[in-house]
Amino acid sequence: MDVFEKVIKVLPDHEVQNFKNWILTITRHHCLKLLSRGLKRENELINKKIDPESVETPINTDQVDEQEVFDQLENALEELKAEQRKCVSLFYLQGMSYQDIETITGYTNKQVKSYIQNGKLNLKKKLKSYR
Fold it and tell me: Which of 15, 55, 70, 108 is the most exposed place for a label (fewest CB within 10 A)?
């Protein structure tokens, strides 16, 4: 539909010799643009820090003991692999950047991002299992 709408708008302004090739090019460019947007969105999600509003809270917050939540988080953090635990702690608890973590740990940028992302997912799974 998007391509059709674009063709209707753009066609009067162009002198098209070979319509088949022209519409193929328009379609290809449109698809590449959509793929590019998807990759940018993925990178933004990877680089995004935890937003307090995005963290799930228990239904009955009155009945939850804060100390119990911190204990569960601490236990879940201890169960992570050493690399994930180190990167997650440095990034979220100490507020360090990827470059700072690279310097401290000696991991590559790609490894740091992977350890943080996987550690975050594993923490979420472990905390759900505690509930």
Answer: 15
Q: How is residue 52 written in tokens? A: 């307090």
Overall number of domains in the chain: 2
pLDDT tens digits for range 2-18? 888 888 888 888 788 88
The mean pLDDT value of the chain amounts to 78
Q: Are 109 and 98 in contact (CB under 8 A)?
A: yes
Supply the DSSP symbol for 46: H
Q: Domain limits at 10?
A: 2-47
b/e burial code for range 52-89 (CB count within 10 A of at least 16 → b):
eeeeeeeeeeeeeeeeeeeeeeeebbeebeebbbbbbe
Say which residues have a Cβ less than 8 Å from residue 50's Cβ, sequence separation at least 6: 92, 120
Ranked by mean pLDDT, which of 44-53, 56-65, 119-128 comes out on top? 119-128
Same domain, 26 and 78: no
**Phi (first) and psi of residue 51, to 5 degrees:** -95, 125
